[in-house]
Structure formats: structure tokens, C-alpha cells
Specification:
Elements (H helix, E strand, L loop, with lengths): L12 H15 L6 H15 L4 H12 L9 H8 L3 H8 L6 H11 L6 H36 L4 H8 L21 H30 L7 H10 L3 H7 L4 H6 L14 H16 L8 H15 L4 H12 L10 H4 L7 H19 L5 H8 L21 H16 L10 H9 L8 H12 L8
Helix pairs in contact: 1-17, 2-3, 2-9, 2-10, 3-8, 3-9, 4-7, 7-8, 8-9, 9-10, 13-15, 14-15, 14-19, 14-21, 15-18, 17-18, 19-20
Length: about 450
Amino acid sequence: MNLYLPSASQLKLSELMASLSYALDITEGQPPGHCVRACWIGMHIGREAGMAEDQLWELYYTLLLKDLGCSSNAARICELYLTDDLDFKRDYKTVGDSLPQVLGFVLKHTGLKAGLAERFRSVMTILRDGPEIARELVATRCQRGADIARLLRFPEGVADGIYSLDEHFNGKGKPAQLAGEAIPLYARIALLAQVIDVFHTESGRAGALKEARARSGQWFDPRLVQAFERAAQAEEFWSTLAGAGIDAAVTGLQPAGEGRQHAMDEDYLDDIATAFGQVVDAKSPYTSGHSARVALYTDMIGEALGLSMARRRWLKRGALLHDVGKLGVSNSVLDKAGALDRDEWDAVKRHAEFTETILGRIGAFRELAAIAGAHHERLDGSGYPRGLAAAQIRIETRIITTADIFDAITASRPYRGAIPIPQALEMMKKTVGTALDPDCYDALVRAVERVPFPAAA
């Protein structure tokens, strides 16, 4: 069965970014569609504020991609707070500036599963160094998000908007403590839209309006809060926000962006897959470069098997995105040095389903989504998430699986160092026919033999 290869011209940038934004939602512990809903809210604020069409185009992508850097501080949050980064990030979006709120958040989220002494030390460290810790976490996230926006070929206005997302109108935000109109307009709108969605999801229309008004002049530009209140008078604004058609509505909102949008060609698709692969790999210090290496090994195996250049190129994108579902797994599990308990292992296994769901939102990626999401299936039927039999596992999945296992063994992990390539191949050989496809394994061996890896590898 041949892989369906849709052309890049069949994809819309707005659909692609809206679909991939669901990966950012799960990294932030937010309900699915948070970035899309924030885009709906923010675009209405921008229009009510009288923004020009070219500004609205940049605002649109700032809103969809506001959380591009969100995976980069997840490991540090777990390290500092001894906590689940997903719960931490979700609840942090509801915390204001008052000391009781901040103290309550710290006590609620720090070291709940740690010993009493360890928890006490962590709480005291955070209370003592809190401002600097918070600035570090936000700066890491903001800088990484802006850098990835540039990799995605968006203009500086979008990168700046993402970088300044956590600045507050009163100058007490982060990372640069900008105030008032010194904060990029896109960032001012994105923060307001973000908070509105969080509180609308939590407590409905009244809760969202109350929070926007309460923080006007503090977190938010009062002029933009007024623009939101005007937009909020339309019943359609709220019904669409809470409705099943929100994805289509937001895709249809994209302004023309005359002269700003890059042609959706094969090279741009490669760049998009590479950029989101970096978002995935930033989640853990132990996965740095993993997606890019799996993509490389996938391509090497595909070449050795005689796949066409076009087929290999498409499959390589699937390899770059095969672990996008790991954004929905806490670093307290991903980076754990010891054995996982049953609940933790179940959490890890869900990443394969998340991958298929996220990529499956992109119409032209649906077949590739199933291929990438099955990369932990085994020929003997003992894999996950579906326990597929050998006849149900396609050759494209078998290729990615072989590449993924090879990199998992040869890269460092929390519980061991990297394993030398000859030893790794011997280990893999023992699973040929049960986990690994014989042809794919042989192709990997042939491909690796042609590469002059450093002797220390």
C-alpha cells in the first residue's frame, strides 16, 4: 500500500498552524483548542481596536502560536517545584499578582509527593528566590518561542509578540518589565485573550468579563479591555467561542496578509515540521535532537529500502513529528530516573494517541498521522496504543519504529549513558521479527555501515 502524498499546495497555513496549536495546548495543560479560542477572542479585540489588515495578519499568528516556547521550561519547573509541569502550567494562568495568591499557588504546587524535608527546602528556595526564578522561567519560554517563530518564517512582529506575552501593562510583568505601549500591541492583545479564555473555560462569560475588568490598567491595556467589551456584546461571539465550529471559524478569520505569507511549498513544509520537532525536543534535556535524528535515520533506512525521494521526504516529516504527543506527558514522568509505576507508564503510552490526534487534525496529514502514531506498535502484537498485528503495521511505520529505537538506545537517558552503535545494533537484532521488521533492520545496518560515525559514538 503506497503512502498518499498530497502536495503542499493542498495545505492552508491557517489550518496547519491552528491544528499544530493543539500540541501547544497540551503542553500548557490547557483544554484542547485554547490557542484557537484565544485567536478568536484576540482577533475580535484587534478589529474593535481598529487595527489595519496587515497588522491583523501578524496578530492572527501571534495568537495561534503564543505558546511556541512553552515546552522549553517544563523540565526546569519540575526540577524547581518537584511537581507535575502540566498541572503547574494550567493553574499558573489563573494566578494574579497578590501575595496571598502567589503564596497559595506555591504551597499548592511544590513538592506534594516529596518528603517533608525536601518539600520544605524547595518551598523556602522558591519563596527566597521567587522573582528571579519566575523571570528565568518566563525568559526561557519567551526567547525560545520567538526563535521558533522565526524558524517558521514569521516576521519580527510575530516573534516580538510571542516574546513579550507575559509583560503587564503596569510594568510588573516579565521578562523585561515593559510598561504601557512599550509592550508590543500583539502581546498586549494575546495576554488579554489568553486570560479571557482561561476564565471563560473555568467560570463562563461572567467570569471572563469580571477578570478582564479587574486587571484593566494592571495586566491589561484599558483601551483593549474596552474593545473586548464591545466585541462581547454580540451573542455570536460567545456562541462560536463555545461551539463545535470554532476551528473552522478561526481558519476563516485569517486576514489576507498581502505580501506577508510565504508560499506553501515543500521546503516550507519541511521547515514547519523541523520547527515543531524542536518544540517537542525542548520538553526534556534527554530528548534534545531526538526528532531530527529519528528523521535522519528514517531517511537513511528509506533510501536503503529504495523508497522514492518524494516518499522519503513526506515520511521524514512524519518522523520529525512522531513524538509530538509527548508534549502532553509531564516531565516528572519523562525525566524520571527510576522505574515508572503503572499510572506513569500509562501516561507515557498515551503520547502515541496524542500524536495521531494532533496530526490527524490536518486534513492532508491524516494518513501520516496514523503512521506516526503507531510507531510503538510491535510485529508480535504487544505494542501500543492499539496492539496491532503485524499485517496491520505499514512499512512506513516500521521504518520510523526502527529509527526511533535506534536513537533511543544510542542516546543518553536519565537512567543510563549512551550505548555504542555496534552494541545497539546487536541489542536490536534480538528483537527482529517480534518488535522490528527484518528488512528495516537490515536497511538500518547497511545505512549505518556507510556513515563515518565518531569512534566514541
